[in-house]
TrEMBL record, chain A:
Alphabetized GO MF terms: ABC-type phosphonate transporter activity
Family classification: Belongs to the binding-protein-dependent transport system permease family.
Protein name: Phosphonate ABC transporter, permease protein PhnE
Protein's UniProt keywords contain Ribosomal protein: no
Source organism phylogeny: Bacteria, Bacillati, Bacillota, Bacilli, Lactobacillales
Gene3D superfamilies: MetI-like
Automatic annotation (TrEMBL), chain B:
Residue ranges crossing the lipid bilayer per the database entry: 20-40, 82-105, 212-235, 241-261
This protein's name: Phosphonate ABC transporter, permease protein PhnE
Organism: Furfurilactobacillus rossiae
Cellular compartment(s): Cell envelope; Cell membrane; Membrane
Domain spans labelled ABC transmembrane type-1: 78-262
Taxonomy, superkingdom: Bacteria
Length: 264, 270
């Protein structure tokens, strides 16, 4: 009886070829990208005193500014609520069409998904810049931006939820001859409603965060004041705005997390 | 039996019966507040012509801008955007590791001061707007892509640190125990068990964050932090819609490519 052969590692594993190749690739990319961006740590250290001056100013928030920004803070939340609602409303039909268990037509489904993928590639500030050009400076541009931004996100979340539903009730209704709309209303909707609301609230959280900077390009809300304070080098006001935004975001997150826990 | 029955048929309390109405009232109140509070500027008189020219511009992109050899064209600025995102993400991933160990709440810990404080710091970093960071760094290092790199590397710590620390909390401790029971000391456990167990997840999260950083890098230029955003905002301000169209197209293609590539890599990792 021959002794069992000791398993041999192929040379690729023995000399860690792929690990070394990846490391070299990443190091080369790092060097190339630091050349492309002109990154220079020494320059940052040389100018560090300017940065510290800025930080010192920011660490003395001008609390009196709080009374000025209460109204725009409300406006930010209002923009987020309306934008998310409009986006989610448009997302429902699209997500129904993109769900593979409801729509058998593969071409239509993939076209819808491609469209949703395209919408999701656009960063929110980019949309804001374009809509400010169309609708003028103000919260209308912000609401539209947030609506499109949340439409892309919500519809993906929604159709993924729809694809996980139990098909039993649908088949039962189909077998007694119910129409498509009736099936969606009585068999699909009750199964997904809670998760829809949960994702809606989650998107609202993200939109409140997003809407605080949209105003930087003129799309209304607290961002307008953010830009104003930064342009006037009034960093103690900037600090108040950031802190107030932080509080608002945390309150909204807390409320929405609580509601989502209750729902699910 | 009696008790369950009586429970079932007990008349619902007033609150239980009318709860839905309270919710409807709250929701209506919220929407009334939201709609009433906003001043809709309405459509500007120029909106029709502007959107017409936008659509026309988007349908006839300025193809000459793709490459003109000046170094300020779409392809070189796209590469610059990717470079900003890549450098920022890698730097941030390295800085995030100590933050992750700081914020991770591991099993045999009595009091949560360490992990709790780490989590608060990470939340603060996450909520600090990236644009403001970019503007702060522009003051320090001047406008350009370096400010964008710095903004992304600091801002990403918030999310990467959180994701890393969560994967540390949920990681499989089997390999660590095996090394310990074979007599390994703490550094050996760390190098031979902790790092190999956690590495695929860390890399996967870093790739995911890179996808987000590409989007950020393409808009940070709007405030002067380098990349494709700078010509974009100039083109919008000068109403050069064919130029906007080609840049939008460039961003869409770039983001789609990076997303697909990174998704493939992440699938192979985990």
């Amino acid at each position: 009886m021959s002794t069992p052969e000791i398993p041999q590692r192929p040379w690729r594993q023995r000399y860690h070829v792929s690990a070394i190749a990846w490391t070299v690739t990443i190091v080369v990319l790092l060097i190339l990208s630091s050349m492309a961006t002109g990154a220079n740590f020494g320059m940052f250290l040389a100018n560090i005193n300017q940065f510290t001056v800025l930080l010192v100013q920011m660490s003395h928030p001008a609390w009196a500014y709080l009374s000025v920004i209460i109204q725009p803070l409300y406006e930010t939340i209002q923009m987020a609520i309306l934008g998310t609602t409009i986006g989610a409303a448009f997302a429902i039909p699209f997500s129904l069409l993109a769900a593979s268990n409801l729509v058998g037509n593969k071409v239509l489904r993939n076209l819808i998904r491609l469209f949703l993928d395209l919408v999701r590639t656009l960063p929110d500030l980019l949309l804001a810049a374009i809509f400010v050009a169309v609708f003028g400076i103000g919260s209308t541009a912000g609401v539209i931006t947030l609506a499109i931004f949340s439409f892309g996100m919500v519809s993906k979340l929604f159709y993924e939820v729809i694809e996980t539903i139990d098909m039993g009730p649908l088949e039962a209704m189909k077998s007694v001859g119910a129409s498509k709309v009736t099936i969606i209303w009585y068999a699909v909707l009750p199964q997904i409603l809670n998760q829809f609301v949960s994702y809606f609230l989650y998107t609202l959280e993200i939109n409140v965060r997003a809407s605080t900077v949209l105003g930087y390009l003129g799309a209304g809300g607290i961002g307008v004041y953010l830009q104003r304070s930064l342009d006037q080098f009034n960093y103690s006001a900037t600090a108040v705005i950031i802190l107030a935004t932080l509080v608002v975001v945390m309150v909204i997150d807390g409320v929405s997390n609580h509601l989502r826990r209750v729902l699910l | 039996m009696q008790t369950t029955l009586s429970k079932e048929f007990a008349p619902r309390s007033l609150w239980q019966r009318w709860r839905w109405l309270v919710w409807v009232a709250i929701i209506i109140a919220i929407y009334a507040w939201a709609i009433g509070g906003l001043q809709f500027s309405g459509l500007q008189s120029s909106a029709k012509t502007v959107s017409d020219s936008i659509v026309k511009g988007l349908l006839h992109p300025d193809w000459a801008y793709v490459y003109n050899g000046s170094g300020e064209d779409l392809s070189s600025l796209t590469i610059q955007t990717l470079a900003i995102a890549f450098l920022g993400t890698i730097v941030s991933a390295v800085i995030s590791v100590p933050f992750a160990f700081w914020a991770a709440c591991t099993a045999h810990e009595r009091f949560y001061l360490r992990s709790g404080s780490g989590k608060v710091i990470l939340t603060l970093i996450r909520t600090f707007p990236e644009i403001v960071l970019a503007i702060m760094f522009i003051k320090a290092v001047g406008p350009g892509s370096y400010a964008g790199v710095l903004a992304i590397s600091i801002h990403s710590i918030g999310m990467l640190g959180k994701l890393f620390s969560e994967s540390l909390e949920n990681m499989d401790r089997g390999a660590e125990e095996a090394i310990t029971s074979a007599g390994g000391n703490a550094p050996q456990v760390f190098v031979l068990a902790t790092i190999p167990t956690i590495m695929p997840e860390f890399i996967s999260y870093t790739l995911y964050r890179f996808e987000i950083a590409v989007r950020s890098a393409s808009i940070l230029g709007m405030v002067g932090a380098g990349g494709i955003g700078t010509p974009m905002i100039f083109a919008i301000q000068t109403r050069n819609w064919p130029r906007v169209g080609i840049i939008l197209l460039g961003i869409i293609v770039m983001v789609l490519l990076i997303d697909t590539l990174s998704e493939q890599l992440r699938k192979r990792l985990i």
